[in-house]
Design goal:
With about 120 residues, the protein is mainly α. Helix content is about 70%, strand content about 0%.
């Protein structure tokens, strides 16, 4: 499967639109505009209660505030912060996807987010 920046941009726009218009669940990160944080919260919440996931989400965004920081981190460090969430295949996929987006697509989170923020 091949990806391009246009496809990534379309995906991010659709994710933001879905989060704004259709995601009516009451959650602490509702209203978030950063695609990375929306994606991270959804990965953490797969088969995890919101009460438990909240603590992990807060730790993750403190230590790995954007997708490039997550992609650059050592696996062991990421898995250490994941401990207790279970279903480690989620963490493995999170790491692989972050690295793909950051390195293969040369994703610049700051430019993409500021453009989106100014357009919304």
């Amino acid at each position: 499967m091949t990806f391009n920046k246009e496809l990534l941009s379309t995906f991010l726009a659709l994710l933001l639109q879905w989060n704004r218009d259709q995601n009516t669940r009451k959650m602490p990160w509702k209203g978030e505009k950063d695609p990375y944080k929306i994606w991270l919260s959804e990965i953490i919440l797969q088969q995890t209660r919101v009460e438990q996931g909240w603590k992990y989400y807060e730790k993750f965004i403190t230590v790995f505030p954007d997708i490039n920081k997550l992609a650059a981190a050592k696996d062991e460090k990421i898995y250490k912060f994941w401990e207790g969430l279970g279903y480690y295949s989620r963490c493995k996929n999170l790491i692989e996807t972050a690295r793909f987006i950051s390195k293969k697509l040369n994703y610049d989170n700051s430019k993409s987010y500021s453009k989106r923020r100014n357009n919304n």
